[in-house]
Amino acid sequence: MLDYANSAEQKVQHITEELRSTETRHRQILASVSDGIIGTNANGEITFSNPAAAALLGYAEAEMLGRRMHHLVHHSYPDGTPFPESECASYQTFQDGRPRTVDAEVFWRKDGASIPVEYSTTPLKQGFAMVGAIVVFRDITQRKAALDAILDAKMAAEVANRAKSAFLANMSHELRTPLNAILGFADLMRREARTGRARLTAEQAENLATIHRSGEHLLGLINDVLDISKIESGRATCQPTDCDLHALLGELGELLRERATLKSPSLRVHWAATVPRHVRADATKLRQVLINLLGNAVKFTQQGSVLLAVDALRGEQGGRCRLRFAVSDTGPGIAAEEQAKLFQPFSQALAGVSPQEGSGLGLAISRQHVQLMGGDIAVHSAPGQGSRFSFELDFEVLKGAVPEAKAQRLVIGLEPGQPRYRVLIGDDIETNRQLLIKNLKPLGFALIEATDGEQALARWRDEQPDLILLDMRMPKMDGYEVARRIRAEEKRGRTPIIAVTASAFEEQRDEVLAAGCDEFLRKPFRDADLFELIGRHLKLAFVYAERAAPALHTAVDAARLGALPAALRAQLREALLVLDGARCGELAEQVAALDPELGAALGKQVKEMRFEELLGLCEAADAWTGT
Ligand code: ADP
């Protein structure tokens, strides 16, 4: 009996020791944790606190006991926004017995200060009854400070970015306004010369062309800077439309050839017969990329040639095709170590730095545009061996023709028998009004002027014009307000309003249309676009100057030369090689007998002594036909 009692006592003692050592171990573990751990009873009164919890909240461990958990919670988020007790996580856990984790709340310290914490509450249960909760929390002051610093920096960057965009938009508006006058008046003088209303000597015409070209160049630079800011802020998007690819390539050749003829390299644009004519593409971006690549090639190539070749990598499959665009030149080439930097904004390699030309933005923009269209630009180049920039893109091939691009024909008057329409011009800048007046007056329009928004509205009320050309940024009342008021007041039918704006962004079109305008014409505008819009809204019939002869490149291409008898082509090649103009002329006549358009174009090109270019085309035709 005694033995039994002894052994039972020993067992109890043993268990008690075990328990004590387990508790000591647990306390040691809890004491070594840097997170605060609090235990409560079912009433939410603290029954246990580890040293970290007491230290974080500024109490002695013993002082923690008996306090109510809810009193420790600030009931506000770290940014100070208060919330009701019912939304407090530990309160809710006591209500529904479910565990919770909270990202960021605030606990009170003994000294009245508060600390941001992340914490979790876990219910303690016996059977179904809740007998208390365990709260584990962590001081997130440092993390919050780091986060706040990031948020502050982000905010500051956003503010700076917005300021930069606003600055660029304003600056571009300011630059576009005088540019509108420069380009517009140069255009006007050219038109007057071409329609016989004014006479220009050859030198004056050349000077005028230089003014125009420089203006276009400046406009290109302004647009580049805007493009870069748009790309940097992620606002650039791809906008595919139905596009006549052959026409686009042909125009490019013509445009660049003008520049190239000023210097020595010959320029060829060549597309394979398998390249589809009508595709869906963001023609504006594609054109911009190709102009940039070709422009660079022409700019940096002192002698030799520049070639834009377009090939179909895959024939049409399921309504799609893959095309490769490659611009090659025989220029100075680019060293491997410089190639990596080429596509960074404002970076220029050796060839770009020496003539001190260009902004170093073109390739950065081009790459971004090509990437937006689903490809990438590759460069193959070595010093002294020329350069080749290429990219591949997928296109949807369109069946049937794309409506012809708006013909940029030269308007010289109105068909007789049309009413004398009255046009209100609202613009605060005298030169802008003058430019519109000088474009429209010779066509017989009656013109009404307004120098600010209020006046524009008043003159519309008094004179009921047939159409309004409205600047959007004007003193007293801006164009948006004028348009809105007119739309609200008008009873006798809708007066067409064409917004003529130097706004930096094409995206403002939507805003302008929402205000009640019918069209958006961006300064600097082309006179043909102005007439087209007015003509459309007033249903006018214009008299146009005779159309210029079809551009040469559309007639002379390798595929068409390839259709000639091989012997005739061989003779032509020989004559071109020895630069025998007379013989080439004879051969052009022989070609004309077979293909009149090609013969005429050839004859013209021979007269302009573009031998090297023609030779290149003959060679391409030979390669084509395998001769
Ligand atoms: P920009 O032509 O305005 O300087 P780009 O971004 O178009 O700017 O070109 C960046 C640089 O790349 C040029 O300054 C030039 O050094 C180099 N580069 C571009 N194209 C060629 C080329 N075809 N041949 C030689 N160098 C080129």
* Small-molecule binders: adenosine-5'-diphosphate
Q: Output the radius of gyration.
A: 39 Å
Tally of contiguous helical segments: 23
- Please bin the fraction of helical residues: 40-55%
Assign the structural class, choosing from mainly alpha, mainly beta, alpha/beta, alpha+beta, or little secondary structure: alpha/beta
Q: What is the rounded distance between the termini?
A: 122 Å
Q: What percent strand? A: 15-25%
At CATH level 2, the architecture of the largest domain is 2-Layer Sandwich
Average pLDDT number: 84
Shape: elongated
The main β sheet shows up as: 7 strands, mixed
CATH topology of the largest domain: Heat Shock Protein 90
Spans of at least 5 consecutive residues whose pLDDT stays below 50 are 547-554
The tally of structural domains comes to 6
The CATH superfamily of the largest domain is identified as Histidine kinase-like ATPase, C-terminal domain
How many DSSP E strands? Answer: 19
CATH class of the largest domain: Alpha Beta
